[in-house]
Amino acid sequence: MNHCHDPIITRELPFIAQIIQNETRLEAERRGCPVSSEDPAVREHVCTIVLQIGADLRAHLSHC
């Protein structure tokens, strides 16, 4: 199997990590108790955000 290295994905990872951190904190605030970053609600929010901003983020990072 040939694995291609995509430098844009590497540059996206810190942004995605920040989104996960933010959504984990926000979900904990909504519930009023600690929440894991692996919580299904957190994952759903993160996926929604990444799908919404993914193209713009990729375009921005490919020009940096």
Number of strands: 0
Oligomer: single chain
How many helices? The count is: 2
Mean pLDDT: 89
* Molecular shape: elongated
- Cα-atom radius of gyration: 14 Å
What is the chain-wise order of helices and strands?
HH
- Overall number of domains: 1
> Alpha-carbon distance between the termini?
30 Å
Please give the structural blueprint:
Elements: H1 7-31, H2 40-62
Descriptive labels:
64 residues, mainly alpha, elongated
Describe the overall structure.
There is one protein chain. This protein has 64 residues and is an all-alpha fold. It has one domain (7-62). The protein has 2 helices and no strands. The chain has helices at residues 7-31, 40-62. Helix 1 runs antiparallel to helix 2. The N and C termini lie far apart (30 Å).
Brief rundown of the structure:
By secondary structure, this protein is mainly α. The protein is built from 2 helices and no strands.
